[in-house]
Design a protein that fits this description.
This protein is mostly helical. The chain has eight helices and no strands. Helices cover about 50% and strands about 0% of the residues.
Amino acid sequence: MRRTIVVIVGIAVVGFIVLQVLPVGNWIPRLRYPGNPPAGQAVQWDSAETESIVRRACYDCHSHETEWPWYSSIAPVSWLVFYDINGGRAEVNFSDMQPDEAEDLAEDIEDVISDGEMPLPIYLLMHSDARLTDAEKQTLIGGAARTFGATDHEDRSDADD
């Protein structure tokens, strides 16, 4: 019995080591380490409060200002982190916004925040500071509407007045 446990632990250790050196990112582009490239055209937020909320809850995945946690260098968790960051930047990148990308962004932000889709629940497990109160959600939604010039929906933060 003891020998079986030693063999299982040995296989697990060898497997873990192999995962650390396996170049999975070379085979699957979405799993490549994205790094923090230089920022391009950054967003000029409507207020310091909106910017503070967005930086705290969104910038790790939606900008080139990602703060890499210790576990982002340990496979296979690193692959999940890289996958989410690459996907997040492909969807919206606040460090490199092009004018045509901002067209429907306020409405998209409102939808994902209101529906609880963002920040991702798995992200919130390790980043409790990214949890948004209802008031912060409304500030973010209103700030995004003002920042991106939304005209097709009401700014909810002003509707409460």
